[in-house]
Amino acid sequence: MVKKISVVLISLVLVLGFSSLGFSADKGNARKGKYTFRKSCRSCHSDTGSAASISPDSKTQAQWTRQFKPGKVQKLVCKDEWAKISKKDQLDIFTYLHKYAFDSPSPAKCK
User: Fold this and answer.
1) For the segment 16-71, what is each residue's pLDDT rounded down to a tens digit?
2) Disulfide-capable partner of 63 in 15, 24, 59, 94 (CB 3.0 to 4.6 Å)?
3) What is the DSSP string of 51-74?
4) Could you state, in order of their start, the residue ranges of all structural domains in the chain?
5) pTM recorded for the entire structure
């Protein structure tokens, strides 16, 4: 009886552990996103750049979510440069912009 309960509990822990990995798999890394944004996007998206100056607090979290919907990015002027960035780095950039958006608990304070 104790053996059956132990097996069930261990199985339950494993299932919950693997399911939580699935939920966290689609989250990016904001720290890496900040670095990648500055390295890949900031040269154009600044006050002296060729594109509109943007930073995380330029938009709300909902606006960043809409901006990064599939197909929406393809309409941007910088779509060719964006396509050169890996999917993981794109997710990291989105996570950075979304996490520090204007209406987030911790909006970006400096540009």
Assistant:
1) 554 444 444 468 999 999 999 999 998 889 888 888 899 999 999 999 999 999 88
2) 59
3) S----GGGS-HHHHHHHTSTTTGG
4) 28-99
5) 0.73
